Amino acid sequence: MSDFDTDLFVIGGGSGGVRAARIAAGYGARVMLAEEYRVGGTCVIRGCVPKKLLVYASRFAHTFEEAEGYGWTVGEPTFDWATLIANKDREIARLEAAYTANLTRSKVEIIKSRAVLDDAHTVRLLADGSQVRAKHILIATGGWPAMGNGIAGIEHVISSNEAFHLTELPKRILIQGGGYIAVEFACIFAGLGSEVTLVYRGDNILRGFDDDVRAHLRHEMERRGIKVICKRIVEAVEKVDHGLCVELSDHEDIVVDKVMFATGRRPNVAGLGLEVAGVRLDEKGAIAVDEYSRTNVPHIYAVGDVTDRIALTPVAIREGHAFADTVFGGKPTRVDHTNVPSAVFSDPEIGVIGLTEAQARERYHRVDIYKTTFRPMKTVFVGSEARTLMKIIVDGASDRVLGCHIAGPDSAEMIQILGIAIRMGATKADFDATMALHPTAAEELVTLRTVTETHVRQAAE
Ligand SMILES: Cc1cc2nc3c(=O)[nH]c(=O)nc-3n(C[C@H](O)[C@H](O)[C@H](O)COP(=O)(O)OP(=O)(O)OC[C@H]3O[C@@H](n4cnc5c(N)ncnc54)[C@H](O)[C@@H]3O)c2cc1C
After folding, report:
1. Contact 179, 160 (CB under 8 A)
2. Which residues make beta-bridge pairs with 69?
3. What is the CB < 6 Å shell around ligand 1?
4. What is the pTM for the complete model shown?
5. Is the pLDDT assigned to residue 1 strictly greater than 60?
């Protein structure tokens, strides 16, 4: 008889935890999973999925505008936020039920409770105070919005969590942050008709992305009427008669109806009992793990955003799966965190994979850049000035494609597929040898013949 109540206790029913639990149970492990809020986690309940639904909603604005140029007569379109939110909530409930059913079918015992560690093998369930002794523990508690160091009036500020549940569409909204979540919400609200101001403390939005993409997106967002204020921060928020008065660091006041901070996310480790279990954090406050997601305590593992490697759903899922293969499937599996495709569902959308130009120039002796911007067929036809950017970064020595960056309609879809070629080590010659598919925007990727810039690194002194 085992000394343990379960082989695996998973804390957190999000992308990483759910996958790990299902796969481990499939290997015959007895698995329990605790979720304190809703099964599905950030991605399903208040992240990727509801966000993408709002993105879809916001893009109808263009569709109505363009339709006329194509001969359609569309009456004055009106938008109802309450309908969108109610329908979104219905879809999220459906997905939550599907996740729950999948876990139950896999024989994972779901416990609706917050779980904390009492020691390295004991989990306490706060719902009823009971304890569970677990042979292995997986921490998959995700991340949480970082709201800064408490400015005056912070109680009036919402995060992305609340943005999904607003009772009405704000007429004017100020969003602080320059990362993908800030930019996406700015474009969502602008598309739905809000007057949007984006405030960011850095030089330009989307730090870490290719500089051409950053400049392109900012230009396009401004062209679409979003006010982007960089090198400034929000100092205070005060409730006034007709909304919220936001004081910026240069003392400019802006009055809006809602203020949202999207200033990054922190690993969700507070109050988890990591100290009593002896689990170490890294210098950024994330759970420190090795390449098998194992913490310094050999039977405790951690996956997903709580480890702050790459905070994306498919990465958390892959890490959870690899953990289960390693510990319960007898197949030690590492996750490759290079060449992860990613997207920003802004307007226009961004899809990227591999190195930025700056990274490539730092690491490679000679870098060739192939770049184009053009007005896509569909929208130039109706007189739109919107431009698509495509940029391919090539190692001049081996001809290997090091990175690809697209800002334009459907770029996320293009990058997903391009990811296969780039992972396989495709060269620029492979791109050139691929027959174009006409008429598409993606054909530009295989017809870019002329190097726009070459950068040769000077030998280090
Ligand atoms: C607004 C937004 C948009 C996003 N968009 C995208 C996107 O387009 N594409 C993409 O790939 N990623 C996106 N992400 C990121 C993605 O959601 C996360 O990377 C992913 O959900 C991480 O999975 P996880 O398993 O690590 O954690 P989570 O999915 O956050 O799951 C953690 C779960 O643990 C629970 N929990 C925490 N502590 C405890 C405890 N002590 N006891 C019990 N339960 C606990 C939480 O309630 C939560 O359900 C987005 C995130 C946000 C916030």
Report:
1. no
2. none
3. 11-17, 34-37, 41-43, 47-48, 51, 114-116, 140-143, 160, 181, 268, 272, 304-306, 311-314, 316
4. 0.96
5. no
